[in-house]
Amino acid sequence: MKTVLATLLALIIAIGGGAASVWFLLEEAPAADGLNIGPWIAYPSLGTRDADPYSRARFVRRGGVPMGQAEGIVFTARTDSNQQTLVSGCTYRLDGPMPVARFWTLHAVDNSGRPLPEFEGRPAALQAMQVQREADNSFTITASSQAHPGNWLAITRPGPYQLLLTLLDTPISTGAAVEEIRLPTITRVSCDV
Amino acid sequence: MFRLLYAFLVGIIGAGIVHIAIIFLLPANASNDAWSRIAAIAEPYQPVLLENVEPSVLPASQRNPFLRAVACRFDLEDGPLRVSAREAVPFWSMSLYDRSGLNVFSISDRAAPGNVPDLLVLTSKQLSELRTEMPETFDQSLFVETDVTQGMIVLRVLVPDESYVRQVGRALGAISCKPI
Question: Per residue, what are the HEC states of chain B?
Fold first, then answer.
């Protein structure tokens, strides 16, 4: 009887522990192959033959057709530069520089990745040709639920959100030095009380 | 007491084995890779616009309001694949995915001679056969040599603003994806 109980215990720990640790690493833990730059993170090897087994398993569960390295790279920001979660009740300022790329787009999504709804025909998205620039070619983008002059990214849905920065045809994704990549900072300007 | 500790230790080691086994077996047993998902909704060589598809084909996080994408499955046993549009687009890029949905090759229009997407996907054997008598119709084509026989291409096109919606829509609607 004792042997049966001990075997049963060992089996439960083995199967339960093995499955739970896989689930935790795939769903909860941060991915090891991420490219972190300030608040931004990207996964250049996701869905390629170079990906590590965990990245491969994660990709199998999510699926899709991620961009290839010669096409571009997508950076995601869940927080501002001070590691505070992005929420629609606050106003954020994004300050350049933007890395070398043929084109870039910036859009806001909810936590499941769906683009935020439009605000009076204005999508929660901006692209390189739309932004107004200063004399020295720099620019500032304001992400807020309230209208702002200049480059305004309209945040329409209450709650937390994420910013997706897509760089098209950029040397970053094809292996430029990581230390040299500069992405915009995200600064919290004010919050509704 | 000793027996309990022993069972606990065996359990931990077993958990490690189970963990590694799941991680390595997951990709082999998956059926929701992009190739299979597209195969479920479209025939080979049938271009599929990736905007009204289920999130299982293209997760929401991979959608971009400024990009439109079209996918097309192929089998190089039928001959080299030609993907071409008739109209110029502001920016295009292409990725090649193998049978299990892994991205094996990508290219942007920087490498192409014109703004009109025009690609020829072939194996090295087909390329050397074609080289001996290169037809003039391919002098604007971008050659993509690959070891993948059954696979899928995804062509992404930039729509910078509303003034391009019609032009890009026409170009994507008339995209041709055929073996030659």
Answer: CHHHHHHHHHHHHHHHHHHHHHHHHHHHCCCCCHHHHHHHHCCCCCCEECCCCCCCCCCHHHCCCCEEEEEEEEEHHHCCEEEECCCCCCCEEEEEEECCCCEEEEEEHHHCCCCCCEEEEECHHHHHHHHHCCCHHHCCCEEEECCCCEEEEEEEEECCCHHHHHHHHHHHHCCEEEEC
